[in-house]
Design brief:
Dihydrodipicolinate Reductase, domain 2
């Protein structure tokens, strides 16, 4: 392990939990300890909240790390990594915090350093706002992992919605000897499908969501076969539309909350689809670009991809990668506009 402690101001860039998660992953991968201060300083609830704390604890568990400042509400964390060990792990956020973000923190260290398959059981939110939902992981994220040479299988045992949480996701991560660089120029033709699901709520809500989504799409000469589903657990609802294209399908979704009409849930998903379809035909959707930077920075050889929209999450992740790895990562394009990411 490197003895050089990397000091990182957690308020820079997007100033949220992404800086923490990427730092944890890169510390485990590089062996470099870090101190992160001003953690989530600009958020309404600054410091480590349950899902962030669970990411810290998960990284420490798989990497036999030493911690200082790992407590709820802490704004200052020191992380000293040890050896990453494959195994069977269970992490319970205890709230509706996103299980997807805990998985994002530890999948790469387990795949590249574990040396054997790992099985994860994650308890918390599977479909919550401001985070990738389970079906985005299984549809979009996992497809990109396949292109990179990473094999991750996912299973949702039960869903978890805000505020109750309690969802359960199982993930199996296979070891990988190397990552493939990618050169992704533009997306291919699109077709649509989707589903409208309710959990612990009347099935009529799923019908209304699906009906509204079909109507909105047909107004723009788009058609989608949207199936209706009823899940155990909940309560909660989700309307998801998959844009089938290359290099990877893109899942757009809307979530129900108390007092929110079913039609508005459908509108949120459809609006995302329309924005994506109308945008420049870049290869990578905006919400996947920041997730691709980290593995591509660890791949052998240069990579390049076009992105539909440069986001603050993307540029922030690039800066954290540079801090840990010193890799030449460039992003051309203004925030909010299409761009190109090059990893040399």
């Amino acid at each position: 392990m490197s003895s050089d402690l990397l000091e990182i101001d957690g308020s820079f860039g997007e100033g949220g939990g992404q800086i923490l998660r990427t730092s944890l992953a890169l510390s485990l991968l590089s062996g470099r300890p870090f101190r992160l201060y001003n953690i989530r300083a600009g958020r309404s609830k600054p410091g480590l909240q349950p899902q962030h704390l669970t990411s810290v604890q998960a990284a420490a568990a798989i990497g036999r790390a030493k911690l200082r400042g790992a407590s709820r509400g802490s704004s200052d964390l020191t992380f000293e990594p040890g050896q990453v060990m494959a195994g069977n792990y269970r992490f319970d956020i205890g709230t509706a915090g996103a299980t997807s973000l805990v998985l994002h923190t530890i999948y790469l260290p387990l795949a590249l350093c574990g040396g054997a398959p790992s099985h994860l059981t994650l308890v918390g939110g599977t479909h919550v706002s401001h985070s990738p939902c389970f079906h985005f992981l299984d549809t979009t994220w996992r497809h990109y992992l396949d292109l990179l040479g990473l094999r991750v299988s996912l299973r949702m045992v039960r869903p978890g919605f805000y505020p109750r949480g309690g969802g359960l996701v199982e993930a199996t991560i296979q070891p990988a000897a190397r990552l493939h660089p990618l050169h992704l120029r533009e997306r291919g033709p699109v077709r649509l499908s989707g589903f409208s699901a309710v959990a612990g709520l009347p099935e009529d809500i799923a019908r209304r969501q699906a009906r509204r989504a079909r109507f909105r799409l047909e107004q723009h000469d788009l058609k989608a076969n949207i199936r209706e589903e009823s899940w155990e657990g909940g309560p909660g609802t989700v309307l998801a539309i998959v844009v089938h294209t290359t290099p990877a399908p893109v899942l757009c979704f809307g979530l129900g909350v108390r007092g929110k009409p079913a039609e508005r849930v459908a509108d949120e998903a459809v609006d995302q689809v329309l924005a994506y379809v109308r945008a420049a035909p870049a290869a990578v959707h905006a919400h996947s670009a920041d997730q691709l930077v980290l593995p591509l920075a660890l791949a052998e050889g240069p990579s390049e991809f076009t992105v539909a929209e440069v986001t603050r999450h993307l540029t922030t992740n690039i800066e954290v990668v540079r801090l840990f790895l010193g890799r030449d990562v460039q992003c051309e394009g203004e925030e909010g506009s299409p761009g190109v990411v090059r990893i040399k």
